[in-house]
Amino acid sequence: MIVLVLAVAAVVAVIALRSDADPTAGNTPSTSPTASSGTDAGSDPEVSESGAGDDEQPGDAPSDDLAGDDPTDAEPGGAAEPAARETLDPVPFGDEVTPQRGVTVAVPKVEEVTGEANTPGEVGGPALRFTVDVTNGTGKTLDLRTVVVNAYYGPDRTPASPLLKPGGKAFESEVGDGDTARGVFVFNVPAEFQDKVELEIDPRIDAPIAIFTGA
User: Fold this and answer.
1) What angle do CA 5, 11, 15 make, to 5 degrees?
2) pLDDT band at 119 (very low <50, low <70, confident <90, very high)
3) Which residues, listed in sequence order, are joined to residue 212 by a DSSP beta bridge?
4) CA 81, 148, 198, 187 torsion: positive or negative?
5) Measured CA distances, 181 to 94, 202, 204 (Å)
6) What is the pLDDT at residue 61?
7) Alpha helix (H) ranges present in the chain?
8) Rounded to an integer, what distance in angstroms lies between the CA atom of residue 131 and that of residue 94?
9) Does residue 142 have a pLDDT over 80?
10) What is the pLDDT of residue 79?
């Protein structure tokens, strides 16, 4: 009996020594997940954290349907310039011109006057007073609200300042067929330049500009 007990004790001691010498003996692999320094466990190794694969590198610009819409792609000076207005050849005061079919414009009278300052910005002094007639032969009523009258003087065509007095009178808003409308326009013109004056009559945007010249 004593021999049997000693034999069992010896077997137990051998097993214990083997366990201490091989720490992996009897252990089963751990199934718990481990932390990754890069990608998650089970992820595709070809895909980085940014989601870029072989076909699209992380530094590549993403595809965008609006490519080419950059305002720098626009042609410089894209805004259309206004078309140049047609201007009739200058004629002397007293002549007639026809800026549009059925419409006749004339400046029958030019007078030297002393301009009167009546509103802020006006300056009295040497001036010219122009009488302008517009005769309507269009077969219908003619709208005169768009007519613009300007004056220039001297070799540099300096714009003349308009005045209301003495005797200024705007056109009526319209003139009937077969009738003549008369307007009177006063402009500051220095005495030394009153022998070189241009009167510009602009009937409307789609009609040529008439120019009268002289003294």
Assistant:
1) 145
2) confident
3) 91, 199
4) negative
5) 16, 15, 16
6) 46
7) 2-21
8) 10
9) yes
10) 55
Task: Give the predicted TM-score (pTM) of the model.
Answer: 0.62
Contact 92, 197 (CB under 8 A): no
Burial of 203 (0-12, 13-18, 19+ CB in 10 A): buried
pLDDT of 14 above 90: no
What are the CA-CA distances from residue 165 to residues 82, 104, 150, 184, 200 (Å)?
A: 35, 26, 16, 10, 20
Nearest to 208 by CA among 51, 99, 59: 99
Residue type, 38: G
Tell me: pLDDT of 68 over 90: no
* Whole-number Å distance between alpha carbons of 203 and 136: 12
- Rounded to whole angstroms, the Cα distance separating 51 from 168 reads 81
* Contact of 161 with 123, CB cutoff 8 Å: yes
Strand partners, 148: 202
Measure the CA–CA gap between 108 and 129, rounded to whole angstroms: 11
Residue 162 has pLDDT above 70, yes or no: yes
Q: Are strands 148-153 and 174-175 parallel, antiparallel or unpaired?
A: unpaired
What is the per-residue pLDDT for 164?
Answer: 94
pLDDT in tens, 95-112: 999 998 999 999 999 999
